[in-house]
User: Fold Gram-positive cocci surface proteins LPxTG domain-containing protein from Paenibacillus mendelii.
Amino acid sequence: MEHYDGVILASVVKVDQGNPSNLLHLEVIASYKGVVTDPLIVKENSTWGPSLGSSGTGGKYLFFLKESPSGWEIPLCAPSMLEADASAGELAFLSSQEISVKRTAPEDPQPTSWTWIALSIVIVGAIAVLGVRYVKKRQR
Assistant:
């Protein structure tokens, strides 16, 4: 635990696949070191990390994190694992180290869709063009 800046138990809400890094959107269930806010976005290497193996949306994982200038990340070879794979001794030790987490409102899951805005502009433009053609045709 001393090699990491943060240790948390978290549920994976969403994984944004990227290259060279994936972004894991996490709901922090418990923090044992360093992390004091929930929700949390964590960067991981896209070719090596829990989300490539057994990790998936909805699962509960024990994450060992490093803090960098760009935010939290899962370092290569960190012993991150499913909660179910952690030993009873490990979980008992961690529970004695638990720190409080500040819960904040999650991100807006439905940001403004630029597709709908563009589609609306196209429709309004088409109506305007048809209206101008109709007016010109009636004037003849």
